[in-house]
Amino acid sequence: MNNVFTPDNNGVVKHWDIFCTVVDNYGDIGVTWRLAKQLVNEYDIPINLWVDDLLSFSHILPKLDASKKQQSFNSVNIFHWNNPLEIQFNAGNAIIEAFACELPSQVKAIIERLHLQPHTQAPTWLNLEYLSAEAWVDGCHGLPSTQPNGVKKWFYFPGFSPKTGGLICERELFNQRDQWQADPRHKLALFQQLGLQGINAQDTVISVFSYETRALTALCELWQTSQTPIHALIPKGRSLHSLIDLLPCTIDDLIPGQQFTLGNLTLHILPMTDQNGFDRLLWSCDFNIVRGEDSFLRAQWAAKPFIWHIYPQEDDYHLVKLQAFMQIYCDNLAPEIATTWSEVNLAFNQENLSAVVMHWQQLNSVSLPLMQHAIKWPINALNDADLASRLVQFVNNS
Ligand code: TRH
């Protein structure tokens, strides 16, 4: 089977290929799918997205048919990446390997052939790296590495400073968010559409998309004793493993839309939605507990306070990354707000149960300035340009 984009009569090919292996969870496919959609929608770049695990992908794109080798959504060509490739590969302007996934040997051979062919423009070959707020990223973004086949592969590092590759953010996102948040009927309609019952406009609503942690158990126990109603919205998945003792059935038996009342806390089992639906959910909650890379960024774009449950790494290296982010997020924040917000994030990630409970309670006294900071932060974090626009410029200049 041919892939959809082939050279035109002048030999010019414009499309890009993005390769993604799903290591675990939804972050790898979440980031590449989001980027693919934006490149098509905002830059008219035809995109082929090659994915090895369509079943995982279908959790965040429920309309995807995991049995189909080739399909198209949001004008992105989605190809099942199997080994060896069954779909013919034609190189375009750029090849992005996401998160150091190893390109298929056929693809590498084509890159090498084009590189050696005189008068031919070989595609720009990029490795899209994980997001980090650490300072060293400034110096590594955009560096080339010459591969054994003689071709240069470029390291593309997303990041928070102007010297990095930027952050994924769609052009109209903040306008759409502001319009949504301007009218409380939007959130109530969304909760209803998701099958969540009994949430009133003034209730506190918290979304939870974390990994397993007893810090969440401790927070849920605290929320049960709240003076006012709290709703925790939790999709079927890793967070619920920490709440098993609070549930009357196994996780497998849970059904989206089900709810459990525990004192003043209502736990709602949330259906997973596509990425647009997930954004609207984050915009609609008072506080979001997020994880990994993509939901972490979307929680920032939601302009609401959040806890980041960072993806755990060997030797606690994730805590270095967490500190790096907390430092830039808290720059310009009054010390008492910065300390409270940082301590609750640190305690959650370190499973320090008494500390997470204590600092959560302290958040109440700084909730207004923290909210104001969350509103200002997205514009500051983006700097002059988002990731897609910096990436397009990078490819055009290379
Ligand atoms: O799923 P994650 O834990 O992914 C992680 C991280 O990316 C980590 O850095 C990486 O090393 C590891 O995977 C392999 O968390 P993340 O990054 O937030 O990705 C979740 C994606 O799922 C994101 O694109 C949002 C999406 N999502 C939906 O689209 N709908 C939903 O209902 C939910 C809950 C999530």
TrEMBL record:
Alphabetical keyword list: Elongation factor, Glycosyltransferase, Protein biosynthesis, Transferase
Record-stated family: Belongs to the glycosyltransferase 104 family.
Pfam families attached to this UniProt entry: EarP
Catalysed reaction, written as an equation: dTDP-beta-L-rhamnose + L-arginyl-[protein] = N(omega)-(alpha-L-rhamnosyl)-L-arginyl-[protein] + dTDP + H(+)
Function: Protein-arginine rhamnosyltransferase that catalyzes the transfer of a single rhamnose to elongation factor P (EF-P) on 'Lys-32', a modification required for EF-P-dependent rescue of polyproline stalled ribosomes.
Gene Ontology MF annotations: protein-arginine rhamnosyltransferase activity; translation elongation factor activity
The organism's place on the tree of life at top rank: Bacteria
Species name: Shewanella livingstonensis
Name of protein: Protein-arginine rhamnosyltransferase
Matches recorded under InterPro entries: EarP
